[in-house]
Every structure is written in C-alpha cells, then in structure tokens.
Amino acid sequence: MTIKENSIQLRKVSTADVDAIWSILQQAIEKRKVEGSTQWQDGYPNPTVINRDIENGWSYVCMDEQDNIIAYVALIFDIEPAYEAIQGKWLTDGPYAVIHRLAVSQERKIKGLATEIMMAAENICLQQGVPSIKVDTNFDNTAMLRILEKLGYTYCGEVFFRAAARKAYEKILNV
C-alpha cells in the first residue's frame, strides 16, 4: 500500500497505547539489528522512555484505516541537552522541535510512511509557530538519511548520545 501525500495525521498518545507502541519499537530495534546497526541495541528505547514521552506530551502515533497504531514518533518542543554540544553548527539558535524515536510497523509495510510522518510533524511545528526541527540519526541508518535528504534537512555536524556519535540535521520551516 502507498499513502497519498499529506493523507496521514498524528494523534497524541494515551497510556493505553503503550503496548502497541512498544511492539512497534521492538520491531524497529530488531530491524536495526538485522541490518547490522548498533543503533537501539543497548536497551534504548524502552517502555520507561515511552512512558516519559507520554508524561511530557511528546508522543504521537499514526493510525491505519482500522484504527491500529502503525507508527510512533516523539515530537519534543523543548531543548535537547545533547544538541547543545554539537560538533559543528546548527542553522539557527532559536526555538526548535526535536524528532526522536520514529518507528513504523514492520507488520504492515506502507511505502513512504516514515516520510509522511516527518511531514506531519513539520505541520504540527508550523501550527505551533516553531521555526525549525532538529533531528539526529545513526551513521548507518540509510533509510532515515534518505528521508532527511529528500525533505531538505541540512547536515549540521555530530551530536553524542550514550557515548555514540550521531549525524545531526536541521530544517528551517516556513513559519
């Protein structure tokens, strides 16, 4: 199945969604492992992280036509401490949103879903007047690197999480 441009919406998460979200994240963790990546192979993310995302109001899910959760993303409207020590330079110094923990269901593959989720997150930021999005990913996460390039994110340098370097990107939105 292929989705139509701008046809998805993200909704806020409730604690009732944790099991479905954790299932999707476990699928993503396994996918990264099979691909030979070290990303997400150290016990992160986990249910505690999901619950913290929910408590902070950062959690969003994407639903299919039958109201099944098919993707998860944390959209954070707060400073990411690791981003303060970038080895490189961000495009902007002002307010920004952060995208973390984007994962899509491996049970029901939908071509372009992760890209559409990124675009939906951009729309949420625009609605809230947030002028840029910052995101990072592992050096070997080729799928996410392609999405960031396709959507016009600019490589800004490296940030570090749990002692590992990540490629850092920013996109200035047309607020």
From TrEMBL:
<dbReference type="Pfam" id="PF00583">
    <property type="entry name" value="Acetyltransf_1"/>
</dbReference>
<keyword id="KW-0808">Transferase</keyword>
<feature type="domain" description="N-acetyltransferase">
    <location>
        <begin position="8"/>
        <end position="175"/>
    </location>
</feature>
<dbReference type="InterPro" id="IPR050832">
    <property type="entry name" value="Bact_Acetyltransf"/>
</dbReference>
<dbReference type="GO" id="GO:0016747">
    <property type="term" value="F:acyltransferase activity, transferring groups other than amino-acyl groups"/>
</dbReference>
<keyword id="KW-0012">Acyltransferase</keyword>
<protein>
    <submittedName>
        <fullName>GCN5 family acetyltransferase</fullName>
    </submittedName>
</protein>
<dbReference type="InterPro" id="IPR016181">
    <property type="entry name" value="Acyl_CoA_acyltransferase"/>
</dbReference>
<dbReference type="InterPro" id="IPR000182">
    <property type="entry name" value="GNAT_dom"/>
</dbReference>
